[in-house]
């Protein structure tokens, strides 16, 4: 049996409060009609965390609460930062780490990403660790090397117990917000490669169990084909998660794949 898919919406720095409320309400209303097997996670800007945690109820509303970033520090004099402990106290269940926008604009290195993962794991929040190559790196044929380094210096340093509570999202940087999606074959090839790295370090059972998602211009049109690839366990969705109809269609695509298998 195919394992349930995961669809995560990354709202990035979008929406004012009223628009965010409206988006949640619309997603909630549309999902109410489904008997979902797919797990949905909504990651709004942190300032709206309560909007999502108030509504997140996997049995009733079919989604979990997530956020987009966490401090690498435990607590204290770090103005503007939000700790994993604070997030856990608000019932946040997932958090994206190492998104390419954080790596690019905020200088987040693999070392920092790993610290953040540890903070989250200590507080029982699932890190969704992003990795992926630039267009230049792909053109130079270095994409496997780049992703291997990102995976080996973060995920592969964890214990098996920790890895069980981690998800990975492969997001080729050239596909993020560009409208240019990796082909299903490119996504499958890289996700299978990531799974093989995990298998080498942790064994087959954990490699099969680990959730590895694709992200990068995934939308209602291409989701079905992407999610049908054997190693694609779901999607991390940016732009399309801001449009309720489109986001729900992506979730429907995930459901179709599960039901057809
Ligand atoms: C993302 O930012 O994680 C992402 C996948 O964005 P988009 O879907 O807009 O390419």
Distance between the termini: 7 Å
Describe the oligomeric state of these chains in a short phrase: single chain
Q: Summarize the biggest pleated sheet.
A: 8 strands, parallel, barrel
Which strands sit side by side, in order, in the main sheet?
1-2-3-4-5-6-7-8
> What fraction of residues sit in β-strands?
5-15%
Bound molecules: phosphoenolpyruvate
Specify the number of helices.
12
Can you tell me the residue ranges where pLDDT is under 50 for at least 5 consecutive residues? none
What's the SSE pattern? EHEHEHEHHEHHHEHHEHEH
Radius of gyration: 17 Å
Helix residue percentage: 40-55%
Morphology call: globular
| Arithmetic mean of pLDDT | 95
């Amino acid at each position: 049996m195919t394992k349930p898919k995961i669809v995560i919406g990354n709202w990035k720095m979008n929406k004012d409060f009223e628009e965010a409320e409206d988006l949640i309400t619309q997603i909630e209303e549309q999902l109410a009609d489904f008997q979902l097997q797919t797990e949905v996670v909504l990651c709004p800007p942190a300032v709206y965390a309560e909007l999502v945690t108030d509504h997140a109820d996997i049995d009733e509303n079919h989604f979990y609460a997530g956020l987009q970033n966490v401090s690498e520090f435990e607590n204290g004099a770090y103005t503007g930062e939000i700790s994993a402990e604070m997030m856990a106290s608000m019932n946040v269940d997932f958090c994206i780490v190492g998104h390419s926008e954080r790596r690019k604009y905020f200088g987040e290195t693999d070392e920092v990403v790993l610290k953040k993962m540890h903070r989250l794991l200590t507080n029982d929040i699932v890190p969704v660790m992003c990795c992926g190559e630039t267009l230049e790196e792909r053109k130079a044929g270095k994409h496997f090397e780049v992703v291997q380094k990102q995976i080996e210096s973060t995920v592969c340093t964890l214990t098996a117990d920790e890895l069980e509570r981690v998800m990975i999202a492969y997001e080729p940087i050239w596909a993020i917000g560009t409208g240019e999606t990796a082909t299903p074959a490119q996504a499958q090839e890289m996700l299978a490669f990531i799974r093989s790295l995990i298998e080498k370090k942790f064994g087959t059972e954990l490699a099969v169990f680990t959730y590895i998602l694709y992200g990068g211009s995934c939308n209602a049109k291409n989701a079905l084909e992407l999610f049908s690839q054997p190693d694609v366990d779901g999607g991390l969705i940016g732009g399309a998660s801001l449009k309720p109809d489109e986001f729900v269609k992506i979730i429907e695509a995930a459901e179709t794949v599960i039901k057809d298998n």
